[in-house]
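BUG: 3D viewer hangs when loading the predicted structure for this chain

Environment: internal workstation, default settings.
Expected: structure renders.
Actual: progress bar stalls at 90%.

Input used:
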Amino acid sequence: MPDAAEAVLYRVEMPMAVSFDHPAKRRSTSDSLLLRLDVDGASGLGECAPRAYVTGETTETVTGALRHVPLDEIFARVRSTEPAVLLARLRHEGVAGTFGLRGGGNLLCLLETALLDLLGRRLGLGGAELVPTEGAPAARRPALPVSQVLDLSLDVEEFLDTRGPFHFVKVKAADDFARDLRTVTAIRARLGDTVPVMVDANMSWTPDEAHGQLAALHDAGADLVEEPLAKGSWAELSRLRARTGVRILLDESVCTLDDARTAVESGACDAFNVRVAKNGGPVTAARLIELARRAGLGFQIGVQVAEVGPLINAGRALAFAHGDAFTVEAGQSDRFFPEPVVSPPPAVCRTANTITPAPGPGFGLDLNEHAEPWAVLRRTEGDTSWRPVPAPAPRTKEHA
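C-alpha cells produced before the viewer hung:
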C-alpha cells in the first residue's frame, strides 16, 4: 500500500444538555476544533477549545492559522523519524520547537495533542507517558479525586444535595456579592473545615472593591480566590495579596510561560490554574507546572468548559503524570453531552467523584458516528489547500 497522509478538521458545536454560567460567559454549546491526522495507517486525534476572553483566539482564527501550517512537512517528518525519537523531541521542545511553528496556543495545542496521540498509538504508550514529568512525584496514584464546580445555573442547596462527595469546591462568583458570601457560608456550614473552597471571580472585580470582598470571603471560609482582577493586573494583585493575606490563583492571566514568569516576579499569586488548551498543549502545560514548583507555588489541573474529547484525556494524562496538583477538574462532559463524539466517552465515577487513567494507547479515544456531521475541512498530502467536507447524507431508519 503506498504512503498516504491526510488531515480532517471537525468544528464541534454540540448543544449542551445543561448550560454553564459564570461572570465571563454563559455557555450552552461546545465550541471545539478536533483534528484527525492519518499517516500511513496510523492516526492521532487532537483538540483545542479556544475562548476569546481567555487567549483572544476563536475557532475561526485557529482554523485560519491551521491553513498556513506546512502539513506536508509534518507528515514527512512523522514518516521519516523513529516514533520514540520524535516523541522525545516533542516532550522536550513541544510542537512549536519540534516543527518550527508559530501561532497561538490553541493552534499549537490542536497539533500537539494530535501528534502525541499518534505517537502514543504507534509506541503503545498511555497518556501519562506522553507528557514531560520533570519534578513530578515518582509514584502514580490509581485514582484521583476531582473538584466540584458550582456555577450560576445551580443554587447552593441543590449543589450540596446532589453533587457530593466533595473533595474540593469551586464557586463561580455572581454579580451579587452578597450571594457569594451566602454561598460560601452555606458550603462551610454543610461541609465543615476539611474541604477546600475557592471562589472564581473570572476577572470581574475592581481593585477598589476586591480588598473588602477578599477579606469577607476569607472570613466566610474561602481558602483561595481565583482571578479576582482584570487579566494581567500584576501590581494590583501583588498589593492585594500583601494587604489581605488571601491566597490567589491565576488562570486567564497565565496563558504562556512568560506570563507565569511575570506573575512569579511580581508576587502576584500563590498558584496557577493549568489548562491544556489555554497553555498551548500538554508540553507547555507541564513546563508551567515545573515553573510553579520551582517558585514554591501550587497548581491545579483545570479544564475548559465543554471540552468534547482529546482535551479531556490530555488533561487527565497531565494530572496522573503530576499527582501533586492540589486539585483536578474533570469537567462535566458526561452531564453536558448525552451523545458524545468520541468513544469510549471520558468517565467520572460520580459515586466517589474520582477519575482513573484513560485507557491507552495514546489518549485512548476514537471518533464515533456522532462526529461525522461536524467534519468541515480535509487536506490530503500533496494537495495545496484544505477542501470543504461535503455534508453527510441523511441517515435512513435502517441505519439510524
